[in-house]
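[Structure tokenization] protein backbone as discrete codes
[Encoding] learned vocabulary of local backbone shapes
[Protein] chain in single-letter code, fold in tokens
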Amino acid sequence: MTKYWFNRITLYTSILFLIILSACGNSSENDQVRVAEVTRSIFYAPQYVAISEGIFEKHGIDVELTTTWGGDKTMTTLLSNGADIALVGSETSIYVYAQGTNDPVINFAQLTQTDGTFLVSREKIDHFAWEDLKGSTFLGQRKGGMPQMAGEFVLRNKGINTQDLDLIQNIDFANISSAFASGTGDFVQLFEPTASIFEEQGVGHIVASFGKESGKIPYTVFMAKESYLNKNPDTAKRFTKALYEAQQWVDTHSAEEIATSIEPFFPDTELGLITTVVDRYKSQHSFATNPMLDEEEWNNLQNIMDESGELPKRVDHSKLVDNSYAEDAQK
């Protein structure tokens, strides 16, 4: 009888040990974070570095990355709980707030700090001047999106009004490049690597950078619903720390090293071209070196939106920006 109870106790102890061991194992598993990115672009190099170099994993974050192709679709995905975090232009958070919501979308970590588009001409122009746009057909970005607003901001600063050209803005974001390739427009506003690919193929020629001309703005930012941040503050904190580490990695490594790191995310693009694009963005300081979204940048964003006639209402920096995660990451 004593032996029977001894065996039972030993069995129960073993089971209990396995349960505790299993629980400990589960607690050390990474937090899964679903991220919806507005497009797949070399412009977002620090995000891909954070994944490929294991930086997110190091901070206990398992990123499930989905490309949602367009600001509207990305924000819809976030609002419908199809994603935990969105990587998209800050203007979208203002649009949502202006419509009225009990759960606003909060900008908590900035990724890029300039416009990421380039002006591409169909014909080769040896000495481009912004005046060359007058009377042309210009294939622009979607109305109400940050690329379009930053583009028009630059045009106005160069003395070009939208009435001075035939402006086309009714083509979906994902189809703009194919529309230009098929013959629509004399000029087009494009992200990389499409702009450089077109140049290699002789489809078009890069003549100017909207990023250089528009100045610093919170162009692409990680954002989440306020309810998600309130429920998952530690996850958001570790996510931002990982991002900051990746931003520093990008800032201190060469274009070649960055290109090699992010190459798996662009399987159809040659490494040399990725390197060229990274170097172009790096040289014009498009990659933010920390996740902070300061008030001056926020006001610049709203000024650009206002001048474009797209600002529904001015929103204080404190309403839709939470820099506490970025501040913690830099400690």
The radius of gyration is 23 Å. Residues 117-214 form a domain with the D-Maltodextrin-Binding Protein; domain 2 fold (CATH 3.40.190.10). The first strand starts at residue 31 and ends at 37.
